[in-house]
């Protein structure tokens, strides 16, 4: 239904779809949850609220299955004081439960530290809202420590790997026979996509949402809709410009499906390409570059951030270009670069010569 609206930007369409899904999920939650989601609407995106709703549903279904008193009444009919019936032990048992459980589709779902932390964030947000509003008396999630995340090494491509990747996209020499059949049809698109991701560090969701009127070749500027819900302009260099111009020459001759006429990047079905499709095409080409690194669009973003920091040494510039709200997020991600440079400096100094 939404794909027929030609005047709608990609991110507006995504927000609308998420809002529709949100209403469906709300119909399975206690009524008081509606007040919570209205309360956080001005400070969160539709996608975030939807993720919270899914996570809270898992929590309420856990209580419904494990608590004999609550099992007597449908979840949708639970009053707000149910939250005061939950104790610290219940939260700890819930964290243990989500390590491994059967979801609504009957499939086994697992959560490690990252998944548990996300679900706890949803729970804490809801409890904090009602506790600060003085509508409940207790706040058990605040008594339970958040799952500890282990620091992960940032995966990025080295300079030679970037060159090999781009060569692979252009040549397609190591693709399977099935993949090679489509390579000539998608080569210019794929080169433009991957060059753009490597040359600007934009998120894959920002990339697939690009329309024709978002590109300004006069200033080599690109208008993108950031994760935080705002528009900004970033700039690209000559290599990105050349790849985009080559692809757009081909793209302008393609008749897109109704509702997708303004999209820059199209699928083989002539519809706006999806995030999943971009993830798959990056994986397809990257597996022929390195088997030791799991390369995703986000790793291309990390590669750009590392290169920009190495060239400028300006962590604030990197944070701004990547769209990080907090520079400490950027500093945390690229601290390894500082350590690498310090190690290089140590090896560069020779105290004795042969």
Description:
- The chain is mainly α and 354 residues long.
- The protein folds into two domains: 2-143, DNA polymerase, domain 1 (Orthogonal Bundle); 159-348, hpI Integrase, Chain A.
- The protein is 54% helix and 5% strand.
- It has 13 helices and five strands.
- A three-stranded antiparallel β-sheet has the order 3-4-5, with no helix packed on it. Strands 1-2 form a two-stranded antiparallel sheet.
- A hairpin with a 5-residue loop joins strand 4 (221-225) and strand 5.
- Mean pLDDT is 89; it is low at 1-5.
Total domain count: 2
Which secondary-structure class do the elements indicate?
A: mainly alpha
Q: Encode the helix/strand succession as letters.
A: HHHHEEHHHHEEEHHHHH
Note the total helix count: 13
Report strand %. 5-15%
Report the CATH C-level class of the largest domain. Mainly Alpha
Assembly type of the shown chains? Answer: single chain
Mean pLDDT over all positions = 89
Rounded to the nearest angstrom, the radius of gyration is 24 Å
- Using the alpha-carbon principal axes, give the shape: globular
CATH architecture of the largest domain: Orthogonal Bundle
Specify the biggest β-sheet.
Answer: 3 strands, antiparallel
Any idea what the CATH superfamily of the largest domain is called?
Answer: Intergrase catalytic core
